[in-house]
Amino acid sequence: MKAEFNEQALLKGLAENDSKAIETIYKDNFNMVQAFIINNNGSYDEARDIFQEAMIALYEKAQSESFVLTCKINTYVYSICRRLWLKRLQQLGRYTNQVDSLEETVQVEEDLEIHEKRNADFNMMETAMNSLGEPCRSLIEGFYIKKMDMQSLSKEFGYTNADNAKTQKYKCLMRLKKLFFAQYNIGE
Known about the structure:
The chain is built from 9 helices and no strands. By secondary structure, it is mainly α. The chain folds into 2 domains: 109 residues; 74 residues, Arc Repressor Mutant, subunit A (Orthogonal Bundle). The longest helix has 26 residues. The chain is elongated, with a radius of gyration of 25 Å. The two termini are 14 Å apart. About 7% of the residues have low confidence.
């Protein structure tokens, strides 16, 4: 939530011509744009021009009260710069693909950090599952992955009834939760 608030504060600052917000956006994003343009047949000066155009576009959007940023600022700026640069390359005859349809392929909503965080969480869950031990691991996999009902689980694991299987599953789930959050808190 803190990063999200910071992003909104930067946008608000940009809309209000706050030099600190503009400088922060510039510092956080220019090197990424410069690397992209230089790696794609461009120069430092061209990178500055494209970045300035993107900043103007972001500034205009930020001033609109209806504008809602659905991704990180760097994702948005990069997408604008990429589109502008590919359009410029096309005009110069150095890029042959049609850029008009680029809006469909550059999805600003896709945020790499969200995907990386989700993958890290899945890896932590896998590690927690591997440290859980038997029969808990098989019991949880049976219920959540194989979608077995309590009656089937009680027969497979030798519990006297479905209620006992349910109680054991709950205890295993609490152990898994404890293992997962022990790793999760270390990772932060």
